[in-house]
Amino acid sequence: MLRKKKNPSEVPVGEIPLIRHAEPYDAGGIISCMQAVMDEGVFLLGDYYLVTERMQKEMVLSRNDCTLVADKNKEIVGVLTIQRGSYRKNSHTGTLGIAIRKDFRQQGLGKKMMTAGLEWAKTSGIKKVNLEVFSTNLRAISLYKSLGFVEEGRKKCQFLINNEYVDDILMSLWFE
Ligand SMILES: CC(C)(COP(=O)(O)OP(=O)(O)OC[C@H]1O[C@@H](n2cnc3c(N)ncnc32)[C@H](O)[C@@H]1OP(=O)(O)O)[C@@H](O)C(=O)NCCC(=O)NCCS
Q1: Scanning 5, 32, 81, 117, which has the fewest C-beta atoms within 10 Å of its C-beta?
Q2: CATH number for the domain formed by residue range(s) 15-174
Q3: Using alpha carbons only, what angle is made at residue 47 by residues 104 and 83, rounded to the nearest 5 degrees?
Q4: For a pocket test of ligand 1, which of 106, 114, 155 has the largest count of ligand atoms closer than 8 A to its C-beta?
């Protein structure tokens, strides 16, 4: 399991990004990473990551949620979040989101971050992890399926992206 606290001096200078729990000082890097992926306009719903540094710091410090970062020489190149349901009736669930900068994709980083995030969820007592993904995002769907996620529902033609209607696929993973 990843340790919650990590001294910044422990970040290696090597080529492989280090996956670790985010710290408040990562807020700016997380926002830049999320906005860079949103700027591509094809994978994430929003056009703007409407989170201030202050809000991001609070999210990082939240005991209920998990924010992992992939840190390459102190640049945040990937972000994974799992937010636990905030009501008593859904607190056994977590909602997962992940975004990796373009240059760092298809190198196994997504799988590593997902594995670490799911480990956190499991050890934190979450029973079910939910996510939503565009039906056009074949790489993400393949990754989720390889980790045991199944399609639970589908909102047809929920989005219009570059003149193409796209389904919203709802996926989930139950821990035994
Ligand atoms: C989706 C994302 C998180 C995947 O991370 P990644 O680091 O690129 O993926 P990985 O290198 O870990 O590969 C994961 C799996 O996808 C498979 N894969 C890679 N490219 C693929 C493609 N073009 N089509 C289908 N499967 C593909 C790989 O085979 C791998 O499976 P394996 O390890 O069993 O062989 C990342 O690409 C990303 O952040 N994309 C932009 C934002 C995004 O789409 N976020 C998710 C929104 S729901």
Answers
A1: 5
A2: 3.40.630.30
A3: 70
A4: 106
